Amino acid sequence: MKQLFAIFGNPVSHSKSPLMHNLSFQGLGYEACYARHLLEDGTKLKETFFNLKLKGVNITVPHKEHAYNACDVLDTFAQKIGVVNTIVEKEGKLYGYNTDAPGFLKAISEFKNANHVLFLGAGGTAQSTSSILRDEGYEVTLLNRSAARLEKYKKDGFQTYTFDNFIPKAYDLVINMTSAGLEDDSLPAPKALLESVIPQAKACIDVIYGKETPFLKLAKSYNKPTKDGSDMLLYQGIIAFEYFTDHAYTFDEIKPHMEKAFIL
Ligand code: NDP
Q1: How far does the centroid of ligand 1 lie from the alpha carbon of residue 247, in Å?
Q2: Which residue among 94, 192, 203, 229 is least enclosed by CB atoms within 10 Å?
Q3: Is the beta carbon of 71 within 6 A of some atom in ligand 1?
Q4: Does the pTM exceed 0.90?
Q5: pLDDT, tens digit, for every residue of 252-263?
């Protein structure tokens, strides 16, 4: 019988994941289909998963913590960060993984000798990616609009700043981890503050994809190399596909099929 996969989120209509995964299933001849499901109540995630007779799901905003709670078994990294974006059902049990963080790590691997990283933002995406970057030897500093979200990072030993107490230094990569610029024209931090770090950066990166954000525009005005969030999206999808298909295909076998979603 054909396996069924889906993405759960709210909103979910904009998601590229169905196209990415369906192109890959089709291209590789794997008997499966991937749909989207608007999940309003995150506490119903497990119930919904079984009602829809799914084999696996990706989870997007705002349910990644609910996804963590819904799992019976967590891999070591998902357990550590408390955020799950990929679930696979095996013998009636839900197994949870986080593929955003390794996807992001791979996306920035093209920037060599870039160990000092400044994150603009301290939300859910920053949480998983800061953890994996530190595990890989990067030194991550976080700068956030509000102090509240920085508390847990401080406890975990990260250097943190708000706009008021920021002390600029040389960062190799400056990365927008906020949603500033996603649906508006705002910068993730005051312009003067960004202009105190961009000139020294080797590159500027945004996790937002599919548009040139005001942050990347500003970085380009300083002739900096830039990168948006498309590769992160692609790579988290490929890693999720590996879990969905129980590693029947390698990353490089999946990639040419899934990346077609970005030209369609
Ligand atoms: P969260 O809601 O968890 O966190 C939002 C963060 O952005 C907070 O730090 C918040 O600061 C900050 N913020 C929001 N608006 C502004 C603003 N106008 N100015 C300054 N700071 C602002 O979001 P997520 O971590 O889930 O998502 C962040 C971004 O990552 C989104 O744009 C999302 O689309 C993108 N993303 C991309 C992926 C990809 O594959 N490319 C995967 C996952 C996410 P405060 O604490 O002060 O509110």
Answers
A1: 31
A2: 192
A3: no
A4: yes
A5: 999 999 999 999
